[in-house]
Write a structure and sequence with these properties.
7 strands; metal-binding; Neurolysin/TOP_N; metal ion binding; about 725 residues; MetalloPept_cat_dom_sf; metalloprotease; two-stranded antiparallel sheet
Length: about 725
């Protein structure tokens, strides 16, 4: 998952307006230099300057943000009131370089929000959310600014600009148009009011989820550890001790903790408690319940797009995505859905047979799915996930990432000594990224691997500085963030195959950042149903022989993974695809259906239940993200009516994978790798994604590749 930090959650509609390039505006620079607030200061030190993460303080956030917005609006006013006729340089390029200080502050703000949140920061976040919305509206509704953009846009339709400049103009104009720039004064006022209210609701939604993740912890006694591995129990004991509960074992309310517990614990009643805690986040009928917030968000979103003449939010949102319309997105999902739920029926039947044979006297429930799926895996494929885990050390997998980056992108990763580059937590490590042949610096890669209190769950990638060249080349500062359970001192970090796949996925986003060759900041953006494609494709390299044979080493013996176990892994590659596809698709379908429904008197809990029943959702598993905890969609707008994008990207991924499988040297074929970088990674959003894919593949992607990839029946 890409995380643009604050820019996709609170300022998603002006990313293309302010850009993320630092322009050395003299007035702004003078004002910043007069301030002692570290969050406002220009980045100094090695590598063309780096964020002063070791000096950032929560108490500096409010002052910095307020001053940053003042300075940002000064930049915008200067552009809007320029007496010279509007041109690409004095309007579009000037906007690309605006809000220098504010962009720096957003980097720190994103860390406070995602990696090191605290009650103190959440109070500040709640206070600032409406102010940030007002800032957004002052830009998107600046009539003089929009008229200048429109002038440049209309001129470019008659006398086309160079391709990259034309793309920036088109994207900028479209972004303003989609955010109400053509509305009359009364509608603009209401549009701004809605955005302000939504910003408050998004912040509250996120904080409610974080509250439930932090406050629902299941503590086990020593006699309740049946089935759990030694490494897992050691980690659970350490977490429990850190929380003041000695002699106990803590199962935290995050996926990295609940997944292994639900897979291996023999304590069925405890599995039910842990499962319920996790899937009821935001849905506990208390002060942190999100159901009413969601209803209000849906109403406001529909009202806002209605001001611009759209029937629903999905229609407005998808017009600039690859899918173009909600109907196209729904058609794709519903083409896969029947095969997915049919596979779930087969998987449940296999599980029930094992439960019956064991005399367990139960009907498979949602909290049993992972546990019995593992039993089926062992029986059908003689594959024990915990055995595989012994070969999946985080350090070795990190080296595997570097190997793949070296083979495909010609990158070399070198550890930066501790203390040379500031970090916001001692767990964060940094690597220098350079071209292997020329030695040219590409940038820095930060890794924040472990779960901790105040860090949001899941895994994501983000940039602190993106590549641009319109005012001289700038290197990239990119990060990957995970939530692996931190081991007891001296113990290795062992992760599941699924977690290893996610690790590769998020690194794919980082490689997308590092490989950028775009000139202007706006072109570093992306089309939501395309930007997951590159990272999903990179997952495939985890299963290549080169990675398996060289980096999957037993953590105790140092022996490489046996060939017989590798065969079992590959034979089981399509196992449990019903579960994985169905839990994801249910969330994606719910996202779309919620935004196509009439929100006037919507009861979220009832809508969720009735929609799942209509879809014939198997009762033995939940959606990946139940509605009250669906942060992708309701803590901001980045994935709203766009969660289907993972499936859209899956089609591209499966099709592109077949291209590599057909190549002479497979996944490390040099010609294919060069095309991969040239057409799929380096351009970012400087060309239409559909055209970029056609340049790589020679045709459009085919859904049949996805069905084959998942082992589903392909209709003739």
């Amino acid at each position: 998952m890409i995380d643009k930090a604050i820019k996709t959650t609170l300022l998603c509609s002006i990313v293309l307006i302010t850009g993320c390039k630092n322009d050395k505006n003299s007035e702004e620079k003078m004002a910043v230099n007069d301030s002692k607030n570290i969050l406002l200061q220009e980045w100094t030190g090695p590598y063309e300057g780096v964020p002063a993460f070791d000096e950032m303080q929560v108490q500096d956030v409010k002052e910095a943000m307020k001053k940053g917005m003042v300075l940002g609006l000064k930049d915008i006013d200067s552009i809007a009131n320029n007496p010279e006729p509007a041109t690409f340089e004095n309007t579009i390029v000037a906007m690309e370089g605006s809000a220098e200080a504010l962009n720096r502050i957003f980097t720190y703000y994103g860390i406070f929000s995602s990696n090191t949140s605290s009650p103190e920061f959440r109070d500040i976040q709640t206070e600032l959310a409406p102010k940030l919305s007002e800032y957004q509206s002052k830009i998107s509704q600046n009539e003089k600014l929009f008229q200048r953009i429109k002038t440049v846009y209309e001129a470019s339709q008659k006398d086309t600009l160079p391709a990259d400049q034309q793309r920036v103009v088109d994207l900028t104009y479209k972004q303003f148009e989609m955010n109400g720039a053509n509305l009359d004064a009364e509608k603009k006022k209401r549009y701004a009011e809605i955005n302000k209210e939504l910003s408050k609701l998004y912040t509250k939604f996120s904080n409610n989820i974080l509250h439930d993740e932090e406050n629902y912890v299941t503590y086990l006694n020593k006699n309740q550890l049946g089935g759990l591995s030694e490494s897992f129990t050691k980690s659970a004991a350490k977490i429990s001790s850190d929380k003041g509960q000695d002699e106990k074992y803590a199962i935290t309310n995050t996926r990295s903790s609940i997944d292994p517990f639900l897979t291996y614990s023999t304590e069925r009643e405890l599995r039910k408690i842990v499962w319920t805690n996790y899937y009821n986040r935001g849905d506990n009928a208390d002060a942190y319940d999100n159901n009413e917030l969601i209803a209000e968000i849906l109403k406001l979103r529909k009202e806002r797009v209605g001001l611009m003449g759209y029937d629903n939010y999905a229609e407005w949102r998808l017009q600039d995505r690859m899918a173009k319309t909600p109907e196209n997105a729904m058609d794709l999902m519903m083409a896969v859905w029947p095969a997915a739920i049919a596979r779930v029926d087969e998987e449940v039947a296999d599980m029930q047979a094992i439960a019956d044979a064991n005399g367990d006297n139960l009907k498979i429930e949602a909290w049993d799915y992972r546990y019995y799926a593992e039993k089926v895996r062992q029986k059908k494929y003689d594959l024990d996930s915990d055995e595989v885990k012994q070969y999946l050390q985080l350090d070795n997998l990190t080296e595997a990432l570097f190997y793949v980056a070296g083979r495909l992108f010609n990158y070399k990763f070198t550890p930066v000594p501790n203390g040379q580059v500031p970090v916001f937590h001692p767990d964060v490590k940094v690597w220098e990224v350079a071209d292997k042949d020329s030695g040219k610096l590409i940038g820095l890669w930060y890794l924040d691997p472990y779960a901790r209190e105040g860090k949001r769950s899941g895994a994501w990638a983000t940039t602190y500085r993106s590549y641009t060249s319109y005012k001289g080349e700038e290197n990239v500062l990119a990060s990957n963030n995970s939530n692996f359970v931190k081991p007891a001192p001296g113990e290795p970090v062992l992760i599941s195959w699924d977690d290893a796949t996610t690790f590769f996925h998020e690194f794919g986003h980082a490689l997308h950042f590092f490989s950028s060759n775009v000139k202007y900041p706006t072109l570093n953006g992306g089309v939501r149903d395309y930007t997951e494609f590159q990272s999903q494709l990179l997952e495939r390299w985890l299963s290549t022989d080169e990675v398996i044979n060289n980096y999957l080493i037993h953590h105790e013996t140092g022996e490489p993974i046996p060939a017989s176990l590798v065969v079992k892994i590959k034979n089981a590659s399509k196992f449990n695809q019903g579960f994985g596809t169905t839990e994801y698709l249910a969330s994606a379908l719910m996202d779309m259906k919620l935004h196509l429904a009439d929100p006037s008197n919507i009861d979220i809990d009832k809508f969720e239940r009735e929609t799942l029943k209509e879809l014939q959702m198997p009762e033995e598993l939940p959606m990946r993200h139940r509605t009250p905890q669906f942060g992708h969609v309701f803590s901001g707008e980045g994935y709203a009516t766009a969660y289907y994008g993972y499936m859209w990207a899956d089609v591209l991924t499966a099709d592109a994978s077949e291209a590599f499988m057909e190549a002479p040297d497979g996944f490390y074929d040099k010609a294919m790798a060069d095309k991969l970088v040239k057409y799929l990674f380096a351009p970012r959003n400087s060309m239409d994604p559909a055209e970029a894919y056609r340049l790589f593949r020679g045709r459009d992607a085919k859904i049949e590749a996805l069905m084959r990839d998942r082992g589903f029946h392909v209709s003739e």
